[in-house]
From TrEMBL:
Pfam families: Lipase_GDSL_2. SUPFAM superfamilies: SGNH hydrolase. It comes from Roseovarius pacificus. The lineage of its organism: Bacteria, Pseudomonadati, Pseudomonadota, Alphaproteobacteria, Rhodobacterales. GO terms for molecular function: phosphatidylcholine lysophospholipase activity. InterPro entries: Ester_Hydrolysis_Enzymes (IPR051532), SGNH_hydro (IPR013830), SGNH_hydro_sf (IPR036514). This is Acyl-CoA thioesterase-1. Residues 40-204 form the SGNH hydrolase-type esterase domain.
Length: 223
């Protein structure tokens, strides 16, 4: 399992940084008439940690969608080091009136900290409930817990995403890293930065290619 380890921020700092980022993005980028706006809501995997501006998840996904005939506005709502608790704390003010849909990718940092899956579930539930209250379409992107926490932890954590997707009737993508396939550790590491944790530009490209069709479904749901 590839988890975020290097750039963790304290809960309070992450929330504050998220507010600053969100305020800048939503104030500085005007809504594009006639185009749907999707909020990519996550942690450093969404934010694009360690990558050049056009190499991160959001710009690569935006280009993939455009190349496949779908012109949308994707807002980067990724905050490095964020947990599901941080996401739950900032979701309401992140869902500005121009947001039509949201991609939720949170939970990796919860796993690293060994947070009780019940707590992570409750936080993600709050995020999805907020989206529902705002009338926002959601694509929930799952994460897979590593086996070193034990089978009970893994089973409890892995069930969070499909259960909540069913409860809230959201679109669901099983695993953020699915695009990297089932290759052995040595081959998979070719798609990661030197930290062995965050995908490099080529890794993001593969992740986007796998995730993209599900995002197309999200776009179709709001158009």
């Amino acid at each position: 399992m590839h988890l975020i380890t290097k750039e963790f921020l304290s809960y309070g700092v992450a929330v504050l940084r998220g507010k600053v980022i969100a305020a800048f993005l939503f104030a500085a980028v005007p809504a594009w008439a006639g185009e749907a706006t999707i909020l990519a809501f996550g942690d450093s995997l969404t934010q694009g940690y360690g990558l050049l501006d056009q190499q991160g998840l959001v710009p690569q996904l935006d280009k993939w969608l455009e190349d496949n005939g779908h012109k949308v506005r994707i807002v980067n709502g990724g905050v490095s080091g964020d947990t599901t608790a941080g996401g739950a704390a900032r979701v309401d003010w992140s869902l500005t009136p121009d947001v039509d849909a949201m991609i939720v990718t949170l939970g990796g940092n919860d796993m690293l900290r060994g947070i009780d899956p019940a707590v992570s579930r409750d936080n993600l539930d709050r995020i999805l409930a907020a989206a529902q209250a705002h009338g926002i379409e959601v694509l929930l992107v799952g994460m897979k817990a590593p086996g070193n926490y034990g089978p009970d932890y893994k089973a409890a954590f892995d069930r969070i995403y499909p259960d909540l997707a069913e409860t809230y009737e959201t679109l669901y993508f099983e695993d953020f890293f699915a695009g990297l396939g089932d290759a052995g550790p040595a081959e998979v590491q070719d798609y990661f930065q030197p930290d062995g944790i965050h995908p490099n530009a080529e890794g993001v490209k593969k992740i986007v290619a796998a995730l993209g069709p599900k995002v197309v479904e999200l776009v179709q749901n709001i158009q």
